């Protein structure tokens, strides 16, 4: 994988760049729709390409390993062949998911023992087998096996957890570098900065991650309940340490405001379940602000969901009709709202990229944050 830094904003740390993978190019800043179990929930591949114009989507090691399982995925020739998405894919390593299985997992130096949330079967994830699993899934970018420390946690927990994540990272790199891709294209391993919200730990972790000299770097352990200003402060000084010539991926973020503020702090890649999860309960992000479509006020508003956004779904369906579908809990409601919200998120990061290239990103961001976060 190659990263070309195309422009750094004069008034902020925002960057425009281009990632080139064996499954195609990614223009950054970019938002990556989350496709946990091999599908972006309620969204067809055709809509991902046409309306949403997604460039890369996420899968999750934990879920795909449990269902459909490695033999089915390998038999298909990997996830790209299995779900038909022939552009880039990134898989998270499963660390974050098994840690959220609070009472049915046990952490040790070896790895994490856990019970499947599906059938209670017992499994063990180690840095080594998580690399092997992600080789079988075949994502273009795979994540190191880390512990996402809970928030809040005390300094000693954060320190011990970060140090274990660093030892696990060495084991991930050794295993990954000793194995090949299974399907004839190359994969890249991204390490993940941890350290909770403790500045000295975060600096230590960022320096260790940068030293690994991998093709991209991620910031984990954020968007776990900490205040937004703590998140921004952490990103700011971590990005001063992560190399300029590698993409920076902020995991699990966020609202439109979080994304624009983090772009200004030098983040290039984002993923979050918010646009799809909130869509399923009727929260719409639009170029005019945030709409709770269940609200009575939209019941006879026959205007398109968002006429300035472009894309079939956002202009073909009216607010009144989508409200009706949501109130009836119709399956089509989830589809329309999910495609719309993802179209908005990709539009937003695409606009950010254009304004970074045009040189007026900071002024644009100030106006845009206010506008898109307004509750309508
Ligand atoms: N907020 C998040 C979301 C996903 C994560 N995935 C991994 N592997 N590690 C983290 O710290 C994450 C944090």
TrEMBL record:
Keyword Amino-acid biosynthesis appears in the UniProt entry: no
Amino-acid positions noted as binding substrate in the UniProt annotation, renumbered to this chain: 92-96, 146, 194, 221
Reactions performed catalytically: 7-aminomethyl-7-carbaguanine + guanosine(34) in tRNA = 7-aminomethyl-7-carbaguanosine(34) in tRNA + guanine
Family designation: Belongs to the queuine tRNA-ribosyltransferase family.
SUBUNIT field: Homodimer. Within each dimer, one monomer is responsible for RNA recognition and catalysis, while the other monomer binds to the replacement base PreQ1.
Name by which UniProt lists this protein: Queuine tRNA-ribosyltransferase
UniProt organism field: Emticicia soli
Residue ranges of coiled coil: none
EC code(s) of this entry: 2.4.2.29
UniProt-listed NCBIfam families: Q_tRNA_tgt (TIGR00430), tgt_general (TIGR00449)
Region (RNA binding): 252-258, 276-280
Active site: 92 (proton acceptor), 271 (nucleophile)
SUPFAM superfamilies: tRNA-guanine transglycosylase (SSF51713)
Pfam families in the cross-refs: TGT
Gene Ontology MF term list: glycosyltransferase activity
Residue span, tRNA-guanine(15) transglycosylase-like domain: 12-371
Role noted for this protein: Catalyzes the base-exchange of a guanine (G) residue with the queuine precursor 7-aminomethyl-7-deazaguanine (PreQ1) at position 34 (anticodon wobble position) in tRNAs with GU(N) anticodons (tRNA-Asp, -Asn, -His and -Tyr). Catalysis occurs through a double-displacement mechanism. The nucleophile active site attacks the C1' of nucleotide 34 to detach the guanine base from the RNA, forming a covalent enzyme-RNA intermediate. The proton acceptor active site deprotonates the incoming PreQ1, allowing a nucleophilic attack on the C1' of the ribose to form the product.
Pathway: tRNA modification; tRNA-queuosine biosynthesis
């Amino acid at each position: 994988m190659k990263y070309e830094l195309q422009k750094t904003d004069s008034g902020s740390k925002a960057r425009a760049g281009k990632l080139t993978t064996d499954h195609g190019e990614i223009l950054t800043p970019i938002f990556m729709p989350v496709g946990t179990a091999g599908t972006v929930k309620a969204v067809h591949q055709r809509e991902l390409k046409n309306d949403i114009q997604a460039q890369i989507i996420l899968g999750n090691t934990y879920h795909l390993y449990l269902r459909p399982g490695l033999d089915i995925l390998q038999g298909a020739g990997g996830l790209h062949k299995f779900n038909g998405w022939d552009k880039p894919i990134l898989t998270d390593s499963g660390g974050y998911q098994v840690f959220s299985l609070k009472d049915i997992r046990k952490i040790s130096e070896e790895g994490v023992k856990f019970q499947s949330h599906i059938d209670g079967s017992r499994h063990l994830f180690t840095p080594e087998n998580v690399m092997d699993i992600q080789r079988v899934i075949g994502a273009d970018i795979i994540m190191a096996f880390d512990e996402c420390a809970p928030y809040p946690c005390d300094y000693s927990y954060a320190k011990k957890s970060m140090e274990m994540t660093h030892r696990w990272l060495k084991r991930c790199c050794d295993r990954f570098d000793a194995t090949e891709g299974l399907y004839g294209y190359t994969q890249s391993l991204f390490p993940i900065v941890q350290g909770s919200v403790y500045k000295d730990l975060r600096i230590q972790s960022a320096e260790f991650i940068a030293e690994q000299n991998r093709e991209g770097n991620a910031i984990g352990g954020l968007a776990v309940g900490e205040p937004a200003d703590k998140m921004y402060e952490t990103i700011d000084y971590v990005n001063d340490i992560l190399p300029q010539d590698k993409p920076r991926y902020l995991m699990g973020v966020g609202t439109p405001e979080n994304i624009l503020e983090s772009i200004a702090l030098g983040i290039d890649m984002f993923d979050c379940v918010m646009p799809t999860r909130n869509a399923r309960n009727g929260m719409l992000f639009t170029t005019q602000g945030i709409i709770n479509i269940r609200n009575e006020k939209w019941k006879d508003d026959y205007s398109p969901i968002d006429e300035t956004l472009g894309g079939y779904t956002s202009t073909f369906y009216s607010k009144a009709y989508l409200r009706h579908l949501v109130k009836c809990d119709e399956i089509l409601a989830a589809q329309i709202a999910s495609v719309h919200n993802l179209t908005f998120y990709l539009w937003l990061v695409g606009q950010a990229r254009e304004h970074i290239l045009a040189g007026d990103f900071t002024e644009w961001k100030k106006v845009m944050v206010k506008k898109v976060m307004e509750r309508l």
